Amino acid sequence: MPTINRCYNVNDFRELARKKLPAPLFHYIDGAADDEYTKHRNTAAFERYQLVPSILQDVTNIDMRTRVLGCDIDWPVILAPTGMSRFFHYQGETAVARAAQSSGTLYSLSTVSTTTIEDVAAATSGPKLFQLYALRDDSINNELIERCKAANYDALCLTVDTVVQGNRERDLRTGMTVPPALTLKSFASFAARPQWCYRYLTSPALQMANLAHHISEGSTEVSSLGSYINGQFDRALNWNYAEKVIARWSGPFAIKGILSVEDARKAAAMGASAIIISNHGGRQLDSVPAPIEVLPEIADAVGGQVEIILDGGVRRGTHVLKALALGATACMMGRPYLYGLAAGGQAGVERVLELLRAEIERGMILSGRASLADLNDSVLRRTDS
Hints:
There is one protein chain. The chain is α/β, with parallel strands linked by helices. Helix content is about 40%, strand content about 15%. It is built from 15 helices and twelve strands. It has helices at about 10-20, 25-30, 35-45, 90-105, 115-125, 140-150, 170-175, 185-190, 195-200, 225-230, 240-250, 260-270, 290-300, 315-325, 335-365, and strands at about 50, 65-70, 70-75, 75-80, 105-110, 130-135, 155-160, 255-260, 275-280, 305-310, 330-335, 380. It has an eight-stranded parallel beta sheet. Strands 1-12 form a two-stranded antiparallel sheet. Helix 1 (about 10-20) packs antiparallel against helix 15 (about 335-365). The two termini are about 35 Å apart. About 50% of the residues are buried. The model is unreliable at about 215-225 (pLDDT under 50).
């Protein structure tokens, strides 16, 4: 089996993760909603733009530093919140957070993580964001916010596109359960991955660590984040509630899940520090726009008023260059680092970040742009594809 040192891009890590994970878990990372049109479009839409180099420029010193959500980071990619990381490797969220710190960037912890807010804070001194799902029991939301304050998290993000779970048909076909359960349907795929099974059986029990004391029993429902959490998603989530969260947090704050100019304007007007243009990796509503497709119009509408983070489809350093040239402050990525985590734990995540960061630097050199400030629409050519 290849090692992480023989992985040279995100797709290589995807293939190695596929070989290391039981099928239900790999497809849980890899899959999306309905026909998965949106997931594929998220990456394919970057092909609408070509990079136009500026020649004979001094690119001796490349500066990729930026500031986002009150944090100074060394390069413009931050790690998106992804649930239940210990399902994919026993080192889980702490490995990802430590990899982010060593790479000089921001890590985002999910409400439905398998490591607590406090344990992640103890594991790394790097910049950290907490991603909040609004649950119907507002006392839980408030508790999570206060715990993040006490643990000195740098920023908070409210995810707004999960008021109901997306239709993830791959999970139905593979028999994915939360927590993973051995069934007749999944037996062969688990038996074929003895190393994963050994770690699963010898590691502390997997649970939604931040919510464990609120959950009376685990979920065995197919294709869910757990019966408890899916039942707790608040369909009454609205702009007034988002304003209350901003006031309670009183620090750098982002709204994640924006795809329209109107919503971007509302978020900027209500005092959000950043908007995260995202369709949840195509895992919620299928047939919505790819983030890169709506980025130009949103940047034209609110650029300068609020930071813009593009989340979705980033697989190459050139994708990041295109997003920044169209007005993004930074990009987010989730699946790529989960592939790295599944392939090799913290070392796998570090190599994914190392490769992507090198691609961004190389792309800046070859396009004749020495700093992020030099990335604007002059570096792009729009195609009709």
